[in-house]
Amino acid sequence: MLRRRLSRLFGGDEKRVDSRTIHMGRQPCPATDAFIQPKFCDNRIVSSKYTVWNFLPKNLFEQFRRIANFYFLIIFLVQVIVDTPTSPVTSGLPLFFVITVTAIKQGYEDWLRHKADNEVNKYPVTVLEDGKSPCRKDSEKIKVGDVIEVAAEETFPCDLILLQSSRDDETCFVTTANLDGESNHKTHYTVPDTEKDLESLNATIVCEQPQPDLYKFVGRMHIYRDGQETAVRSLGPENLLLKGATLKNTKRIHGVAVYTGMETKMALNYQGKSQKRSAVEKSINAFLMVYLCLLVGKALVCTALKYVWQSGPGQDEPWYNHKTQKEKDTNLYLKMFTDFLSFMVLFNFIIPVSMYVTVEMQKFLGSFFISWDKDFFDPEIQEGALVNTSDLNEELGQVEYVFTDKTGTLTQNNMEFKECCIDGFQYQDSQTEARGRCTTDGPGGKQPEKAGREKEELFLRALCLCHTVQVKEPRQGGGLDQVDGGVPGVEEQCGFIASSPDEVALVKGAIKYGFKFLGSDSKSMKILNRNKDVEEYELLHVLNFDPVRRRMSVIVKSRSGETLLFCKGADSSIFPRVKQEEVDRIRVHVEHNATDGYRTLCVAYKQLSVKEYERADAGLREARLALQDREEKLMAVYNQVETGMNLVGATAVEDRLQEQAAETMEALQGAGMKVWVLTGDKMETAKSTCYACRLFQRSTELLELTVRTLGGSGRQREERLLELLLEYHKRAVQDAPPTKARVKRSWCAVAQEFGFIVDGATLSLVLNASRYRTLFLQICQNCIAVLCCRMAPLQKAQIVKLVKNSKGSPITLSIGDGANDVSMILEAHVGIGIKGKEGRQAVRNSDYAIPKLKHLKKLLLAHGHLYYIRIAHLVQYFFYKNLCFILPQFLYQFFCGYSQQPLYDAAYLTMYNICFTSMPILAYSLLEQHICIEILMDNATLYRQIAKNSMLRWGPFLYWTALGVFQGLLFFFGAHFLFRNPALQDNGQVFGNWTFGTIVFTVLVFTVTLKLAMDTRHWTWINHFVIWGSLAFYVFFSFFWGGIIWPFLQQQRMYFVFRNMLSSVSAWLVIVLLIVLSLLPDILLVILRPSRSPHPRQMRRCPPPSGTSSIFTLSQAASTHSFSWKEAGSVERWGLPVSQVCSHTPAHDNLFRRVQFWPLNSLQKIPSYMYKECKIRSLPSRRCPTST
């Protein structure tokens, strides 16, 4: 690492120029050129964070940057330096435990990274020495300029420029699944006009400096030949083979290394993402500040009262404890400050340092439940869910806004050619004969017409030529590679290779109408026409597709010498570049297809004259040789040549909805989330998808804010924009009746529902002015769904940021499957990637990845709900149990003259949070299911109960704090009442202060542990083991600690204290009585809870046998009667069979709840809260025991 940084620092001109120069094989350059081979980094990959030498200092530095760790370090140093009442071990050991556990976890993770690095760096590769003699080397020894040989199915060890291929057409196929997840074969081309004999090849490569964009590369190769002028060839991404990609369907290739090691595009793309913080962390910090203020307040009160108490006569220096001369000479203010620090140390356990390591372990271990969930496994791709970060598990239960892409997310991105329009005539049938309609057709029985044969063939030739599809070679054993598969039922099962499924669908569509694409090489393309004649075209130029132009073109030359340009793209991109009289015949079909939810593309052509082609050819060659601003120069040439075209027709491709997409969106809305669809598609297509997904209902009034509704231009458009915003704001915000947050959408159908539609152009106007932005946001927040169409990737991120930073800071979630969704995934609080067909860039940059959209429902409604409940209870419980722990210590100072005398033994102080109370809450936070998953999935409204961080607000926090204060007071004064008569043993021996503290501590440990047991709803053997095991361990440890004389202890405070304490019947009575009284509020809360809609955990289901009907629930009211089933349907609450109630309901709940059944015909006699959410349906026969 150091050597690489020094190389970058002193490596010469690389840091001062925008390009690098590489010599083939590092041979001497021709004498005419002055060239010095610069130093480049080696090919070692370093993803690890630590080394053996810097692990300890670097890891400690990073851990002590956390405020809590640094705070306890200061407390520990104070205990070491200042004469404090407690041993430094009491704070040092917990801190050491936290630091050690974290260091071991981070060290293990880094060791795995070292192991992975070594596997890559020691991978054997073949290097051609002097262009001819192959030798095997480790990958890390490759240098820039080396010629590498790669065989089929091998991965490229660095970024290479393709020089030679074993294929006759001078191409090779690669898959980049390791980089972006795209499993389709991509075609790469050799540098044209290079020597076949690499030994005689003498060339230099000038290319851009390393940059992370996988799809951009500019450079040129200078080829030197004896006695000839230097040949210059342009280099682009089609010539670059990326490290991590795999060679496919090609025996071998040779390439020259241009980027190595940490300068490869793969390494540059693996830089860390910005850290996201959850709302729970912010709540923890707020609660910590409260408890820190309590700590400082306690220390100040005790310090002040100490000096008030000592001001009395004889209190400062009693006859039995005279001060030393040194104590008398000590400055009063220094002594007060020292006492203040001592009280801080004595009470510092109110700050739960172990909570951080418990929370970290809970998040890390809890994330495995998502990965292990079998419901997330997709047999199609043989993958399940992926967790890229475990820090945001609880945020899945707090989502308020969902931003989703359309293509590949709501839809399958599995394209099927449906129909086309040629010269205004629609072709719907899959046969060669047309069965369409003309735009002039009337309602009568007029026979459908067809376009002219010449127009038909021109359109089909455009589909067969204007693409980057390659014909896949069949395997030797017959059949096709299953990467993108063959086409069953289509002539001879042709297989096609393309980076976009749209292009494959169009080529397959042309086959249905009689034109078949036979394949291409770097210079020609062949098609089979309707007459079974082979047509060959010379491929002159490919004008690649990009999201800005939204179109692509090819320039070809026919055998007759005609030079043709074929272009296909979005209607908004094609219509302004063709003759307007042709647009009217096609537009109606495009809009109709978009309304049906199809993806549409328009097809145009242009016949180029000799002068036009020569001008375009010169411009393209010049632009492609440029190292600076190559893309801008190419764009200018593209725009110049793609004008004045003739519109031929349009295509319609269907992208079907994802499985259960509508059900998932409906569940999210039922859970109270606002769903926004952000897509680059046209408005009509996206709107149809929103209707299909039930985001828009037929009764929904759509508010449209697009270029079409604005009209005009300039100042007039801005005035119209403000007018529409004010109108929509009045209708959707000002005139809207107040809505109840917990009412489902279908229950409030009386009020008018609004949907909002905005396009990218209008959004640019809105975001550029704050007065528009506020109105726009308020309108959107009062709509049931928002559709943003024609969006650029950056605009998606801007929308997410706008909502994320709005009033209330709502939790946002973005979900997408393509590279254009990465920006919004990174911007949102939670980013979800879908393992779709548009690559894995979204997955790599996401926090969580799922195979299908339908899995989002369980991820949020079940996992998110449970994760939030668990960690919220963990946080509140930690603060509560530490308050119970330290409050008696504070009260004890009022009875010991504020002498800083500890109430508990040092061993108890140390092990309370580490051993005695840590494992039960960790098990609870991993395994608790207060509501079973089936109920959570069936009742989306339960998600609303935990919205807006409801369990970590000040109300619940004050409740837990009040409970801790009550129990702390009860512990101390209950034991103090017992000690009014200190002679509690049979022999009359009195108990001392350590026995008093041990009684308080015993009641404390049992109470907080049993409190957690009462809160547990889902019991497993692990819960039983850790809860009862922790209590047993405390008893065993107390006997063991006090039953042996430890030679390393200067004071044996606890010797036989615990045993003697338990020998007193009064001590037993007080311990049991105080535990019962401490838990009494929870028991009374359950018994005296007023009759209301049952808590979701009370919902349980038991289907009746055939021929009966009933409605039943778990009620707090007791019943002394037995009931039997009556009729066939059942009005029921969702839940588990009655036989499973005990396994999911705490024991104290079962004591006070009975099952009641009512006949269906007496439904009107039942209180409304018992059936207002019930569903009626027919259920299969199953026996269910009656209950009394």
TrEMBL record:
It is a multi-pass membrane protein. Residues 37-91 form the P-type ATPase N-terminal domain. This is Phospholipid-transporting ATPase. The lineage of its organism: Eukaryota, Metazoa, Chordata, Craniata, Vertebrata. InterPro entries: ATPase_P-typ_cyto_dom_N, ATPase_P-typ_P_site, ATPase_P-typ_TM_dom_sf, ATPase_P-typ_transduc_dom_A_sf, ATPase_P-type_domA, HAD-like_sf, HAD_sf, P-type_ATPase_IV. The chain crosses the membrane at residues 64-82, 286-309, 340-359, 907-927, 957-979, 991-1013, 1025-1046, 1066-1088. It catalyses: a 1,2-diacyl-sn-glycero-3-phospho-L-serine(out) + ATP + H2O = a 1,2-diacyl-sn-glycero-3-phospho-L-serine(in) + ADP + phosphate + H(+); ATP + H2O + phospholipidSide 1 = ADP + phosphate + phospholipidSide 2; a 1,2-diacyl-sn-glycero-3-phosphoethanolamine(out) + ATP + H2O = a 1,2-diacyl-sn-glycero-3-phosphoethanolamine(in) + ADP + phosphate + H(+). Its EC number is 7.6.2.1. Keywords: ATP-binding, Cell membrane, Endoplasmic reticulum, Endosome, Lipid transport, Magnesium, Membrane, Metal-binding, Nucleotide-binding, Phosphoprotein, Translocase, Transmembrane, Transmembrane helix, Transport. GO terms for cellular component: early endosome; endoplasmic reticulum membrane; plasma membrane; recycling endosome. It is an enzyme of class 7 (translocase). Residues 123-266 form the P-type ATPase A domain. It comes from Aldrovandia affinis. Its cofactor is Mg(2+). It holds the Pfam family PhoLip_ATPase_N. Residues 843-1089 form the P-type ATPase C-terminal domain. ATP binds at D405, K406, T407, E503, F545, K568, R599, T679, G680, D681, R790, K796, N820, D821. The active site is at D405. One of its GO terms (molecular function) is magnesium ion binding. Belongs to the cation transport ATPase (P-type) (TC 3.A.3) family. Type IV subfamily.
